[in-house]
Design goal:
The complex is a heterodimer of chains A (384) and B (361).
Chain A (H helix, E strand, L loop, with lengths): L8 E4 L3 H12 L5 E4 L8 H4 L3 E2 L6 H15 L1 H4 L13 E5 L2 H16 L4 E4 L1 H7 L10 E5 L3 E2 L2 H14 L3 E3 L4 E7 L2 E7 L2 E4 L3 E3 L5 H7 L7 E10 L9 E4 L4 E5 L5 E5 L14 H14 L8 E11 L6 E4 L6 E5 L9 H13 L14 H4 L10
Parallel strand pairs in A: 1-2, 1-12, 2-8, 4-14, 12-19
Antiparallel strand pairs in A: 3-7, 4-6, 5-6, 9-10, 10-11, 13-16, 13-17, 14-15, 15-16, 18-19
Helix pairs in contact in A: 1-7, 1-10, 3-10
Chain B lengths: L1 E9 L3 H13 L3 E4 L28 H13 L5 E4 L2 E6 L5 E5 L2 E12 L3 E3 L12 E3 H9 L8 E5 L3 H12 L3 E6 L9 H9 L4 E2 L2 E7 L6 E6 L12 E4 L2 E4 L3 E3 L2 H6 L3 E4 L4 E4 L12 E3 L9 H18 L7 H15 L6 H7 L6
Parallel strand pairs in B: 1-2, 1-6, 2-3, 6-19, 8-15, 9-10, 9-15, 10-11
Antiparallel strand pairs in B: 4-5, 5-6, 7-16, 12-13, 13-14, 17-18
The chains are: A alpha/beta (384), B alpha/beta (361).
Chain lengths: 384, 361
Amino acid sequence: MNVPKSASIVIIGGGVSGCAIAWNLANRGIKDIVLLEKDTLANGSTGRCGAGIRMQWAAEKNCRLAQYSVEFFENGNEILGYERDIEFEQSGYLIVAANEKEAEQFKKNVKLQNSLGIPSVYLTPEEAREIVPLLDTSQFVAATFCQKDGHLNPFHTTDAYAMAAERLGVKKFKHTEVIGIEVKNGRIESVETTRGRIATNIVVNAAGGWSKAIGAMAGVDIPTYVQRHQILVTEPLEPVFSPMVMGFSYNIYIQQVPHGSIIMGRSDNTEPLDFRTTSGWKFVEEMTKTCSKLLPALRTANVLRQWAGHYCMTEDAQPIYGPAPGLEGMYLACGFSGHGFMLAPATAQLVSEMILGEPLTIDVSDLDVGRFERRELVFEHSVV
Amino acid sequence: MMYKIDLVVIGGGPAGLMAANTAAEAGAEVLLLERDGHLGGQLVKQTHKFFGSEKQHASVRGIDISTMLGDRLDSFGDRATVWKNATAIGFYEDGVITVDHDGVYKKVKPKRVVVATGASEKFLSFPNNDLPGIYGAGAVQTMMNVYGIRPGHRVLMIGAGNIGLIVSYQLMQAGVSVAAIVEGLPKIGGYAVHAGKVRRAGVPILTSHTILRADGQESVERATIARIDRTWNAIPETERTIECDVICISVGLTPLAELLWQAGCEMRYIPALGGSVPLRNDCLETTVKGVYVAGDVTGIEEASAAMVEGHLAGLEAAASLGFKSDSYDAERKDCMEQLTALRSGPTAEKIRTGLACTACL
């Protein structure tokens, strides 16, 4: 099947961000939108992520972006007319502070979150153990908990967006790779794909790890890079805890999924900076050490398998939203640095507003790509 | 701690034992990993005498071949180490193999690997297929021939391939009655000599039949079977009930290739070989350099071919490390000839068709 000869907007990337943007634009009545995916939907970072959704952030902007997204997901099935279920379970996030310094920061975080209407609470280790009985209370000094955080099915969510977008007329092309972008006089003229050329003046670069390569096709340098992240999954166990347990200094996120398996992940800056999705043994060793320390009862759980995906990183671990400088017609929605899945509704809303020149629901003008050259980085410390 | 060694062989069945023996003979230091508490793999429960030529141990029982190969490996002393109760749990990008050895986590980094993990039994979907008393045929054979446990009193066998036929006969030898052998295909898949034995003992072989369901309170008490048409649908009013306390599923095997997937070997789904199998060259080396394969993990055949493949893989893995004896050329030629002979004839047509799709390089 060949692509259409022209389109009002071409969205590159069939992850959750691309699909959400396609739906959001089509839902505003925009016609002739084309969505291009070089593989299958959710095959990149979306389908390999830890699937957590949280509003407990240290920076106000991230709190607001997450809050917007959570409200959307709460009604996601209805808004998107999805006959299956995006499986949003608000089973909470419990974040542990390993030391006093972290605990102090957590107090500030909770104050900020509460002021925005996010119902997080500050807990003693004993209170935390009432929520997650497996925790060793000697291993942390405090915790925060937000019941409205939770997890979501990445495949169903992406599918829900894609199907809703198609019903509104978006033309979706899987296994269709972008191989070139034609620019004339500083303006995008067309997108060349493996299934033909599409004349268009607007391109949304939501290609995740490949966003840099897409930018380069149009002569734009997008300062993103990829890094591998790994996750492991245990055999199914009796249900013992439902929130995502997270620790920033501990470098862990861990959750028991509904069928009983426990999944956990961590960050490691020695991981390769390329697209490989193979697995490493060091990850298993480090991961199981941390897990056994914080949740000692899990020492005896057998690891069933591991998988890997990649984060599309930026220097400050924050997304890039907005137009590409010096090139008319390319909008960026990339560099999510490990939290693109949970922010998809906000991403879709904001990028659509930028394209249509409407006022922004949340001011993300400082998350433009120019911040790296201006050295106005926006740091968020509450990340794994 | 990281163990370093020339060659790790994963799996101590016929293929792995031959690979380890051949490589040790050539001079390589070998570590053999066996998940079970004893060597031999499927050979241990093969109490029947083998066919083929003398080279493939014709007229010797499988269990005796296993002992012979294990003893030979012992004779190499320090050059060949065997870890029993050792499961290879991971095969990583940097060539490290992680092992659960008697409950202790170990890491091994070999220069070459022969993966000879064999196969697992396929299963069938039907209502109540999780009732106690429903086993794979291989499991029943293990219970009887390795552990001396009688699985029940009256067995319904599903599948008339060689394993279904042989296990039926062995069940009768153990004093268990076989109610019937049910086969979905219109003809018997196994050798006529095996089929003849069970038929003479009065066991009906019902071709173009399938199992519809199992029933029982605490465990299997009966099964419902029916005739099927050419499209594998049950024909109405041909249903009948068979009283039995064991249902034995013998519907084929599928390669145990998880480690090869994890190692990044290029795989291809080939139904004629039982599932996804690794592409390999004529040295049995996969697309990942230094990773060799032998036996059922390369595609479902039988123990004789597995032993020859093991010989070839061990020979080539050792040779690639510089352990190349004077007899290398002769041994290689002999292996190739034996494999061609084992795969000749009409019964091996499926295997030949499948193998034609596995070549790389």
